[in-house]
Amino acid sequence: MLKNLGEGHRERLRKRYIKSGLEGFNDYEVLELLLTYSIARKDVKPIAKELIEKFGTIDEIAKSDVKSLLEVDGIGEGSAVFLKLIGDIALTLYREKIENKDILTIKSKNNLLSYLRGEIGHSPREEFKILFLDTSNKLIASETLFSGTIDKSAIYPREIVERVIKNRAKSVIFAHNHPSGNISPSKKDIELTQYMYDSLKLLEIRLLDHIIVTKNSYFSFLEEGLIEY
Asked: In whole numbers, what is the pLDDT of the chain averaged over residues?
């Protein structure tokens, strides 16, 4: 009887989704629906609620690593990989949305921020990323070049220039994360940005922006008037 009740609940969740999408779903119900495809014949509501309690949001769950997901009671390797895959697919879609488009348009900028947040915004350590662009501000490539505390003593202009030349980029966007969650640029962030802006300008390479990302927000040097486009 309990098995039939559980199957009935799963079916109701699926029918709700088919009829109205995720409208009216609580976060734990979204997770319930997902988990029905990786966990058979089991009440997954307690697992979904524990995931929300531990990680806070679906976004945090999707960006977590498999090891952290396995710490939740009832989550096996298959379910952990499944949830992680959902996050990686979303990140891939955001990247596709910014490729071959002018990154500086409002719509593409929003997708860019989502992409950066997914790439480095959830990282527990500071990471420095460069996006290489062509003359139309379209993405050619992106690379994470450095990890750890970011300052100009740790950034090697020669290496950046080598990567720019290799990618045949005409302009770049810098991005790094603040694991603390504080989006305000440090003195070293500002010094680094101005130093690299001036250095690249001599080579006729434009530094279009330097973006600091966290899990939930961002800071743009361009938008705040700290560099000029």
From this structure: 87
pLDDT one-digit tens code per residue, 86-143 = 988 988 888 888 877 878 776 788 888 988 988 898 888 899 999 999 988 889 999 9
Q: Is 197 within the bounds of a domain?
A: yes
Domain endpoint, select from 62, 91, 120:
91
Are 81 and 117 found together in one domain?
no
Give the CATH number of the domain where residue 119 resides. Answer: 3.40.140.10
Does residue 1 carry a pLDDT above 80?
no
pTM: 0.73
Check if the beta carbon of residue 190 is closer than 8 Å to that of residue 144. no
Are 158 and 75 found together in one domain? Answer: no
The answer to whether residue 6 scores a pLDDT higher than 70 is: no
Mark which of 69, 91, 113 sits at the end of a domain: 91
User: Which ranges of the chain would DSSP assign to H, the alpha helix?
Assistant: 2-20, 27-35, 45-55, 58-63, 66-69, 77-98, 106-116, 157-167, 187-202
Q: Would you list the DSSP string of 30-47?
A: HHHHHHTTTS-SS--HHH
Per the structure, the complete domain to which residue 187 belongs is given by: 102-220
Spatial distance between the Cα atoms of 117 and 168, rounded to a whole number of angstroms: 25
Query: If 0-12 CB within 10 Å is exposed, 13-18 middle and 19+ buried, where does residue 68 land?
Result: middle
